[in-house]
Design goal:
The complex is a heterotrimer of chains A (787), B (268) and C (155). Chain A contains 20 helices and 28 strands. With 787 residues, chain A is of the alpha+beta class. The longest helix of chain A has 28 residues. Chain A starts with 14 loop residues before the first helix and ends in a 15-residue tail after the last helix. The relative contact order of chain A is 0.13. In chain B, the strands form three sheets. A five-stranded antiparallel beta sheet of chain B has the order 4-5-8-6-7. In chain B, strands 9-10-11-12 form a four-stranded antiparallel beta sheet, with helices on both faces. With 155 residues, chain C is an alpha+beta fold. A five-stranded mixed beta sheet of chain C has the order 2-1-5-3-4, covered by helices on one side. The chains are: A alpha+beta (787), B alpha+beta (268), C alpha+beta (155). Chains in contact: A-B, A-C, B-C.
């Protein structure tokens, strides 16, 4: 393979093994003598656990061990506290930590909560025995809806946490916002529900734990997208180990989208079982269990109020959110509806004042943790829905209304009233470029074609502005091997994003070496001492920057050697396109690398292997990806069915490392947004707390004929100076822009019927019913009880 | 999944004997419903008797009046059959829209009918086309065959061997899929024959597939979509679940029926 | 327990299985061919698609015992190790995969689709992929890959 550059559509290194069935995912790994584990899960949303009788189960064929709360208590294993980025209530008191153990202790608080772990010789034996674990429950009343959970009469999840309130939060200028609302020519208010969904990576979660008594060390192979942080939590918080006693390794991981970021209970249970048995223990979740036990996302109810002057200029935005975080404050669960959703309120618009307040509330459901976007999709949806709604209510053109209020480029850099540091971008330019793309595709013709079929046509444009997140530090380590290969180990976690290619591409481009020399390692606590895994679109921003920094430092390290080879002085050297030059001579980096392993060619004071180097990059300020989505929708008014007739995106991700991979991120993110907008919905029975959408028969995922082709463009005119690559982040943006674009397009199509709002998912039934009801809708119906 | 004894007899008599000899035997044809049911532990038979080894249960035959489809004939075979496309194109169309391509390569007409899932497609065709279900013991008219959710008139151990369809003058099937599972949320099969018009509805009824009598009468007078204006099946007897309330299903039945009539009229 | 003899990827295999053993379990665990994946338990996702007597099926919804006497082809059969067939290459060229977990099922379905319809339209491809769920790609690049792979396979 020849040299590569940053910005090139380099095909992926990992494809060959994935396309030929030679990937190595967690369920493809089997260790000698391994036993198999099955989790006994609570069938009740809320119940006291009186006793657990394991006698019948333990007597079954092949059963090796049953782990219960008694073991956990006897061993003194700890709970996993939340690492929410917001840790204090509005009054300064600490957020209410809920003791989250790996097994339910006194009570089970959601359907699917682990109550015991059964380990047997085979999965079938473990399953059969799990069904015989006799748990004596007393069912308690459950509360599912977060607004209901705030009512004084609501069932209480925690004896020591009054009112089911985990965390309350505020950000922005309350007084200024209230004043603007009081004085504005127009004030528009809308309650919005952002539906509870789940990531559904096609590979279910699973792990294999092994213990070596001789060294008192553990190895955990785990379908995780965050091995370092999870290792620390499992070792030090749960199992009372030194973190160095646990090696945590993710093999190929079949999708994550945030849901494989969390500190789940099953891996520590398996680690403990592995030690008890002196045998490796493997556990693979079923898909149906995944719906109960993978973390959920979104699930926020908000009241959004927009103040405008007589000309339609935005004066203030106020948002009050109630977020269901589930039965426990999970890894970072309370952060999403508080700090997470606050930061990007107001999007790329000029807002003199903003105020955001929210409550993170315990409910008898599976818990919330980040799902692609984690707070930014909610903020963008709230902002874009209230703008669209205001345009309809005030009889303004929604496109013009947006155009009028976008921050002009000369306003940047700008710190928003939410404290977000927007350093660079050209929002009006991207807006007009997106409009041009849509118009070039023939909006008039698309409308005519829809109407010829008896359908209603709608179009909407949705600018977004989001931000990166996740671990601020990343480690990149480069080793040069005698066989010519170059090892690159990074603490990031690609679960499909193609880091094996893109991070190697950065290294190869920067050093000017062939890409196929690079051997990439990730998600392995043995390979890098620290790592931030994957989350918050940080892969290129922080991981890529670490690789770039390491590469640049290697060039510096190589200079004395290059100078020695060229018989010149270090300070006379230049380095370009992979070659060091001085005077008339030059030497390639590849040659320098060869020389670095040959004692005979090294100058005094340099040893073979002298170019091996590690570097840690730390992000200072989070980056701000931004862009514009637009969608065209056709609605069949007879059935309520929606078809998307066109989709256009312009993104400002700063520097694009590999446009092919960036396209993939946008397309996949948009598809997940479309899924949330039309199909996906986690539904619990509001009375019993039973999960109604417990399989893919009832939880709808988008299929090939649900998703339109997208036209995608990039603006690279203003890379950010916040990191050396100029990268702003690409992973979540698709998911951030999609919901408002498609929902507003559908509502535009329903203008003739007087329909101004439908909460997601916009299923055919809901669309049909909104049409039938002539748009009858209570704009303040969802939050009335708590506002 | 609980283990079971598996047999694959090569003739009907052996299959019947295997069933009779078992305390709790289940026949398996395509397995596309039974295997998921076994995985969930909703059924735990001691014996699974695979009918795919019985050669003469599979195949499609045409005569001057219609077609006969063997019980273990796959949906994909029905969809692709020249004979079916000639005689009853609506039936081939229906078969080609069951599940997904992989399900159609395994699922069978006999299995679908014996299971009588309320959201299965074939029951609508069988009822609307007034087909005859032939078993190893007798012939059962469509009207008498379906007996409520997941229930049929089949006796213990009785095996469907084939299904006989008379060709209608014109027919069409319209299906509104469940957005998640893509099973029929509502499916309407409309068939016009010399004896009149039959309209069968699947996916919606609390008791499974049923005929929409008022629609049949209106279409007998005038076989046009407009004839169904203002006619709706009462919502009272329809299913409500998280995907569709009864009133939405009632509405969809009329819409799907009109579309089916329009398509049947256009293709005739 | 049934004794079965079948042909997997052009090799004869004889084994004893339990009645309940699924074809996917047999392929993955007994034969060690782990390219065929399991992504759900309700026959929806299609990660487990293999060819059974030339037709694509969900191997999680076929008993191993039912495959007695049959010919099975899995993703591992499409090209010699280290190589890709034209359809696999089209997925590679068009970035028609990300995490790779749905990919073997997707490719096996695509192979069957073009065997039946060598020159499909985009709509036919999208409809033909109805039984395969991908959570990463948004399908656009998969559809482009199948169309291009079809062309490459037509020669």
């Amino acid at each position: 393979m020849s040299k590569v550059n940053i910005g090139e559509r380099v095909r992926r290194t990992e494809d060959l093994r994935f396309l030929t069935g030679r990937g190595r995912y967690i369920d493809d790994i089997n260790l000698d003598d391994q036993a198999r584990a099955v989790v006994v899960r609570s069938p009740y949303a809320h119940a006291t656990i009186n006793a657990i009788d394991t006698a019948d189960a333990a007597a079954m064929d092949g059963v090796l061990l049953i782990v219960t709360r008694d073991d956990w208590q006897r061993e003194g294993f700890g709970p996993i506290p939340t690492k929410s980025g917001i840790q204090k209530m509005k009054d300064g008191s600490p957020l209410r930590q809920s003791d989250r153990h790996c097994l339910a202790m006194d009570r089970a608080r959601y359907v699917g909560e682990p109550v015991a772990l059964v380990v047997a010789e085979t999965p079938a034996q473990a399953q059969a025995a799990a069904e015989l674990v006799d748990v004596d429950y007393d069912e308690l009343p459950a509360v599912i809806d977060p607004v209901a959970a705030l009512q004084p009469s609501a069932p209480q999840l925690w004896d020591d946490i009054p009112g089911n309130l985990c965390l309350d939060f505020e950000l922005g200028d309350r007084e200024g916002t209230e004043k603007a609302l009081a004085e504005a020519a127009h004030v528009v208010t809308l309650d919005i529900e952002n539906n509870r969904v789940t990531a559904v990576p096609i590979e279910p979660r699973g792990c294999i734990a092994a213990y070596d008594a001789a060294t008192d060390r553990y190895v955990l192979y785990n379908a995780s997208q965050n091995v370092h942080a999870n290792r620390d939590a499992f070792a030090t918080q749960v199992l009372n180990l030194d973190k160095d006693q646990l090696d945590h390794i993710a093999p190929d991981v079949g999708g994550g989208f945030g849901a494989k970021n969390s500190t789940y209970p099953e891996p520590p249970l398996c680690l403990y079982a592995a030690k008890r048995l002196g045998r490796p223990v493997k556990w693979i979740n079923s898909r149906s269990e995944s719906f109960q036990s993978d973390t959920h996302g979104r699930g926020q109810t908000s009241r959004v109020t927009l103040a405008l002057d007589a000309d339609g200029r935005f004066l203030a935005l106020r948002t009050d959110t109630v977020g269901a975080i589930g039965a426990y404050a999970w890894t970072v669960g309370p952060f999403t509806p508080t700090g997470g959703a606050a930061r990007t309120q107001g999007g790329p618009y000029r807002f003199p004042a903003m105020y955001y307040t929210s409550r993170a509330v315990f409910t008898n459901t599976m818990c919330m943790d980040p799902y692609r976007g984690a707070g930014r999709p909610e903020a963008t949806f709230q902002t874009e829905r209230i703008i669209e709604y205001a345009a309809r209510k005030l009889n303004m053109d929604p496109i013009e209304l947006r155009r009028k209020n976008l921050m002009p480029p000369e306003m940047l850099p700008h710190k928003t009233p939410m404290g977000l540091d927007v350093d660079s971008g050209d929002f009006p330019l991207l807006f007009e470029e997106t409009m041009k793309m849509a118009e070039a595709a023939g909006l008039t013709e698309l409308r005519a074609a829809a109407e010829a079929k008896g359908r209603k046509f709608g179009f909407a444009i949705a600018p977004y502005l989001e931000c990166t997140g996740g671990g601020p530090k990343e480690h990149a380590s480069v080793t040069f091997n005698p066989d010519g290969s170059v090892g690159l180990a990074v603490g990031t976690s690609s679960t499909g994003m193609g880091h094996e290619t893109s991070l190697s591409q950065i290294l190869a481009a920067e050093l000017g070496i062939d890409l196929d020399r690079v051997r990439f390692v990730q998600s392995n606590t043995q390979a890098t001492p620290l790592g931030g895994g994957h989350g918050g679109s940080r892969g290129m921003e922080v991981g890529g920057s670490a690789v770039l920094q390491a590469a640049r430092e290697i060039v510096d390290l190589a200079k004395p050697l290059a100078a020695h080879l060229l018989q010149s002085e270090t300070e006379d050297l230049s380095f370009e396109d992979g070659r060091f030059a001085a005077g008339g001579g030059s030497v390639s980096m590849a040659d320098v690398i060869d020389a670095s392993m040959d004692a005979d060619r090294l100058p005094d004071g340099m040893e073979p292997g002298c170019l091996d180097h590690s570097s840690v990059f730390e992000r200072g300020v989070i980056s701000v990806p931004n862009g514009v989505h637009a969608a065209a929708a056709e609605v069949d008014p007879e059935t309520g069915v929606v078809d998307l007739a066109g989709y256009w995106v312009m993104d400002d991700f700063g520097t694009i490392i590999n446009p092919m991979l960036a396209d993939g991120q946008v397309m996949g993110g948009v598809a997940q947004g479309i899924g949330q907008a039309f199909l996906e919905n986690i539904v619990y029975d509001p009375d019993t707390g039973q999960l109604m959408t417990g399989s893919l028969m009832d939880y709808g995922l988008p299929r090939a004929d649900d998703i339109p082709n997208m036209e995608i463009g990039y603006y690279e005119g203003q890379p950010t100076a916040k990191n050396p690559l100029g990268v702003k982040g690409a992973g979540e943006a698709g998911c951030v822009g999609a919901c408002p674009a498609v929902v507003n397009a559908v509502l535009d199509a329903l203008t003739d019927f007087g329909v101004t709002h439908i909460d997601m998912p916009l299923t055919p039934q809901k669309v049909w019913r909104a049409i039938k009801d002539g748009g009858a809708h209570d704009p303040e119906g969802l939050m009335r009880a708590v506002s | 999944m609980q283990d079971f004894h598996f047999t694959r007899p090569d003739d009907l008599a052996a299959a019947g004997q295997a069933h009779q000899a078992s305390d709790d035997g289940a026949y398996m044809a395509g397995g596309q419903t039974l295997i998921p049911v076994l995985k969930q532990g909703l059924a735990m038979p001691e014996d699974v008797i695979d009918l795919n080894g019985i050669a003469d249960l599979s195949g499609i035959e045409a005569d001057g009046h219609g077609i006969t489809i063997g019980a273990t004939t796959r949906h994909a075979s029905v969809a692709a059959s020249e004979a079916v496309c000639q005689a009853i194109p609506a039936l081939a169309d229906l078969a080609g829209r069951i599940g997904d391509p992989q399900v159609r390569n395994r699922g069978t007409i006999g299995g679908s009918l014996a299971n009588n899932d309320p959201s299965a497609d074939y029951p609508a065709a069988v009822l609307a086309l007034n087909a005859t279900v032939v078993t190893d013991r007798r012939e059962i008219a469509a009207e008498a065959f379906f007996d409520g959710l997941f229930t049929t008139n089949l006796n213990e151990g009785e095996i469907i061997t084939r299904v006989r369809f008379a060709a209608p003058d014109r027919a069409a099937y319209e299906k509104f899929p469940n957005p998640a599972s893509r099973y029929a949320l509502v499916g309407v099969f409309v068939a016009q024959t010399a004896d009149g018009v039959r309209v069968a509805v699947t996916g919606a009824g609390q008791d499974g597939v049923f005929r929409a009598a008022e629609m049949e009468t209106a279409l007998a007078d005038s076989f046009s979509a407009g004839a169904l204006d203002g006619i709706a099946v009462p919502a009272d007897d329809l299913m409500t679940d998280m995907h569709a309330a009864a009133d939405y299903r009632a509405h969809l039945i009329t819409v799907m029926a009109k579309r089916a009539v329009a398509r049947a009229a256009a293709t005739a | 327990m049934p004794d079965i003899t079948l042909n997997v990827n052009r090799q004869a295999v004889s084994k004893t299985v339990e009645g309940r053993t699924l074809l996917v379990e047999f392929i993955r665990e007994t034969l060690g061919l782990t390219g065929t994946h399991m992504g759900c338990d309700t026959s929806q996702c299609g990660a487990c698609v293999v060819h059974l007597d030339g037709k694509p099926v969900k191997s999680c919804t076929v008993l191993a015992a039912q495959a007695d006497g049959a010919e099975v082809k899995t993703i591992e059969s499409l090209a010699p190790e280290g190589e890709m067939n034209p359809m696999q290459r089209a997925f590679h060229e068009h970035h028609g995969l990300q995490c790779g977990f749905c990919t073997p099922g997707m490719v096996m379905t695509a192979m069957a689709l073009v065997a039946e319809n060598p020159d499909p339209t985009e709509a036919q491809v999208r409809h033909g992929l109805e039984g395969n769920i991908c959570r990463c790609t948004g399908y656009q690049n998969i559809v482009a890959a199948v169309l291009d792979g079809a062309k490459a396979m037509r020669g």
